[in-house]
Design goal:
It is a single chain. This protein is of the alpha/beta class and about 525 residues long. It folds into three domains: about 160 residues, Rossmann fold (3-Layer(aba) Sandwich); about 180 residues, 3-Layer(aba) Sandwich (Rossmann fold); about 120 residues, Dehydroquinate synthase-like - alpha domain (Dehydroquinate synthase-like, alpha domain, Up-down Bundle). The protein is about 50% helix and about 15% strand. The chain has 21 helices and 16 strands. It has a seven-stranded mixed β-sheet. Strand 12 and strand 13 form a beta hairpin. Helix 11 packs across helix 12, helix 14 packs antiparallel against helix 19 and helix 18 crosses helix 21. The protein binds nicotinamide-adenine-dinucleotide and zinc ion.
Length: about 525
């Protein structure tokens, strides 16, 4: 895949491109230099003698030619990708737009002569730069990746670009381990390589646990990747859905692990949503007193929530997740390509947790979602929205690995949410229940004057533009909701706790919420239009 660097003149496309190409060991092509060589004259001369239209046609032809090459690093002319057809020609490429502030551009260009759009005769070059930047703003905005180069050296910018190409690697530090977390597209086929897995460290007998649906869609690349590193993976499939997240299924898993000769040095791969991750993780925590396991989350919820933090569990007839353990995975590898096969309702449900994390600790992510409530699930960037949503949980878990304090913040929307799920007989999606729960919690906070009405409407607006519900179903009475919350509390033997937002990025835990306050909120939300 070609790597294309574009951006305004003076943003460093050529110098950065050369360094990036060197670092990656790839061929470097500067389009302007190539056109000059092919035409036997400078760009200014081409503009002068043949006109801009001729130059643009040459550029278009060159884009098509270069896009077909294997792996070049290309720096374009400043205007090349203003043309949507040229952007389309590089549709398969990884395109990065370099940005810089006008003053920095002016600084970098002082002394440069061969800039036809900024000829010596221009009376106020700074103003000209601002005008040109304005004129191109919309076109540049169409480019997926942007990198601000202001105040950075060529080397720094080049390193950032090389970083963009790598899957993002973040780490959770737990008391006794560090768990690397990879997020990016196309990672399932690189599982073995990414973790530097070898049969020297692990036994060749390993297992991939999944369900038939996810297995059919996504198991082959994982199995192939493991075979490529000398492993002999056994594919274990447990029927789909929460009702199979039981000790019974775990027992079937044990049978197959024994059959497949997994030993204490074996490793288990959990490929699927939270159900598979929780169950396979529990099997890994207990088989032979614990073997290593890797989370390969394939739902948005599992990526941003369930796979991080080392809680694994199965359900008991008396309640969800009652039998479990703390077991940090050896690694988490989140391949965002998997999200493209996820049903829309599941993606939406995961979005509720993304919004939850944004409210708890990432104002920028919240604002980004306000701008773009349906972001592209396939993410390659270091600062991708999926990675950002994961980071919020990672930070909290790193500070409170065993859930003794701050980790309770992650329950924002869940005290109400669990009650709604229960009362709907689990007909309501978890994310839908959490969305309504977050609205309830924020309204409760507003009633206590912890936050203002503006926060309530921002949160409600974002959730509803995403397509999540924000109103309590009329058939659920305040009495029933309070009773359901009390049952939940009794079941887990804890106090009734609410996480209340004070502002974006600032939530507090309250355990003195009264029945009357809860009733008021439900009332408000059942009558509000
Ligand atoms: N351990 C934790 O900290 C933690 C945190 C939150 C939730 N959980 C648990 O997570 C579970 C919910 O997880 P979930 O929402 O991922 O549900 P899930 O695992 O049931 O997956 C949802 C559905 O999507 C399908 N699916 C998964 N990936 C797919 C893909 N890429 N393409 C197409 N279909 C795909 C599954 O087969 C399933 O039908 C619950 O059991 C919950 O208790 C655990
Ligand atoms: Zn949740």
């Amino acid at each position: 895949m070609p790597l294309v660097l574009t951006g305004f003149m003076g943003t460093g496309k050529t110098s950065v491109g050369q360094v990036v190409a060197e670092k990656l060991g790839r061929e470097f092509v500067d389009m302007d230099v190539l056109i000059q060589a092919e035409e036997g004259m400078t760009i200014s001369k081409i503009f002068e003698t043949r006109g801009e239209a001729y130059f643009r046609a040459r550029e278009a032809e060159l884009c098509a030619r270069l896009a077909a090459r294997d792996n070049p690093v290309i720096s374009t002319g400043g205007g090349t990708l203003v043309n949507p057809q040229n952007r389309a020609r590089f549709g398969e490429a990884f395109v990065v737009c370099l940005d810089a502030e006008p003053d920095e551009i002016l600084d970098r260009l002082s002394g440069a002569r061969d800039r036809p759009l900024l000829a010596q005769s221009v009376p106020n070059p700074r103003q000209r730069i601002v005008e040109l930047l304005d004129a191109r703003r919309e076109a540049y905005a169409q480019i997926e990746w942007h990198l601000n180069t202001t105040g950075k050296t060529v080397e720094q910018v080049a390193d950032e670009i090389v970083g963009l190409l790598q899957p993002r690697k973040i780490a959770v530090t737990a008391p006794d381990s560090v768990c690397p977390i990879f997020v990016g597209s196309g990672l399932l086929e690189r599982v073995g390589k990414l973790m530097n897995l070898t049969t020297d460290t692990f036994s060749p007998y390993c297992a991939t646990i999944t369900n038939p649906r996810v297995g059919e869609l996504h198991a082959s690349p994982v199995i192939e990747s493991l075979r490529g590193r000398g492993f002999e993976p056994r594919l274990i499939e447990i029927p789909d859905s929460e009702q199979y997240k039981t000790l019974d299924s775990v027992s079937q898993i044990y049978d197959q692990l024994i059959d497949a000769r997994l030993d204490r040095h074996s490793i288990i791969f959990a490929l699927g949503g939270g159900v598979i991750g929780d169950m396979a993780g529990f099997a890994a925590a207990t088989y032979l007193r614990g073997v290593s396991f890797v989370q390969l989350p394939t739902t948005l919820l599992a990526m941003v929530d369930a796979s991080i933090g080392g809680k694994v569990a199965v359900d008991h007839p008396r309640g969800k997740n009652l039998i479990g353990a703390f077991k940090q995975p050896h690694a988490v590898i989140a391949d965002t390509n998997a999200l493209t096969t996820l049903p829309a309702a599941e993606l939406n449900s995961g979005m509720a947790e993304v919004v939850k994390h944004a409210i708890i600790d990432d104002v920028g992510l919240f604002e980004m979602l306000e701008q773009n409530p349906h972001p592209d699930p396939i993410t390659r960037s270091k600062r991708s929205w999926v990675a950002r949503a994961m980071q919020v949980k990672i930070n909290i878990v790193a500070r409170d690995p065993l859930e003794q304090g701050e980790r309770a913040k992650l329950n924002l929307g869940h005290t109400f949410g669990h009650a709604f799920e229960l009362l709907s007989n689990y007909g309501m999606q978890h994310g839908e229940a959490v969305a309504i729960g977050m609205v309830c919690a924020t309204r409760l906070a507003a009633q206590r004057d912890l936050c203002d009405a503006h926060l309530v409407s921002r949160i409600e607006n974002l959730l509803s533009t995403i397509g999540l519900p924000t109103r309590v179903p009329r058939e659920m009475s305040a009495d029933a909701i309070w009773a359901a919350m009390a049952t939940d509390k009794k079941r887990v033997g804890s106090r009734l706790r609410f996480v209340l937002p004070r502002a974006l990025g600032d939530v507090v835990i309250a355990d003195d919420v009264t029945r009357e306050e809860v009733e008021n909120v439900i009332d408000e939300l059942q009558t509000a239009s």
